[in-house]
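For the sake of transparency, this paper describes our internal protein records without simplification. The record that follows is passed on verbatim for readers who wish to inspect the format:
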Amino acid sequence: MHFVVLLSALVACAAGAALNPTKPKQEGRIFKGEEARITDFPYQAFLMGRGKYRGGAVIIDNNWALTAAHCVYGFTAERLLVWTGRESLTCGGSPRMVREVIRHEKNFGNTTLAYDIALLKLYSNINSTRHISLRTTAVPVGTTAVVTGWGYTSNTSSFSNTLQQGTVTIIDPQECRDAYANLTSDDTILCARDGPKGQSTCAGDSGGALVYDKQLIGLVSGGGDCGDPNDPRVFISIPALWGWIRSTVDSN
């Protein structure tokens, strides 16, 4: 199976990184997700670009957030807003202007999902109670982790107006490489399958948080059909990129 990443200026991140051009190219609310309270996931934010929903973002420091690189493809900082403290896409919360977008120097691979990560430096500080710490060590295969987002709840639905949560199970990254022929061979990805309740990421969840033991372990990057047991989900590995994240934040 081959995959492509949608890079249209209007739908790149909202659609997510689709991993098979013959399958739906849009990835939104958590597939079979459950409604979540922002007070339980205060680090989860979302990104708007030119007035349109672009996907998730995750608060990691006073004025820093993380997202998937394909979510900000084609956008300069002044065209972006990060919304915090908001579980609804349509009301509440606080908009934060983006001062700078910093992509990994090795550049995002739109056919491999390598380095699908971007740091967003914000103009205003965010209360430390909304930050999430970054995991620095690998998560064992078989671990159940929590994912949040506003993505599709089925292959034929649209974005969820309300924040959703779900669980997925970490598997060997080789299973993702076997499923998606072009996927990067380096250690910058995590791979997961549907959790015990059949939940998974879907269109529009890109850039959202994957969390284990109250630590950020991954960012939603891509996948094939939502909920298809033969289509594992791809995440960007935070432990693998922790050094780059920390040094970039500290030097800026």
Q: What stands out?
A: Residues 238-251 form the longest helix (14 residues). Confidence is low (pLDDT under 50) at residues 1-29. The longest strand covers residues 52-61.
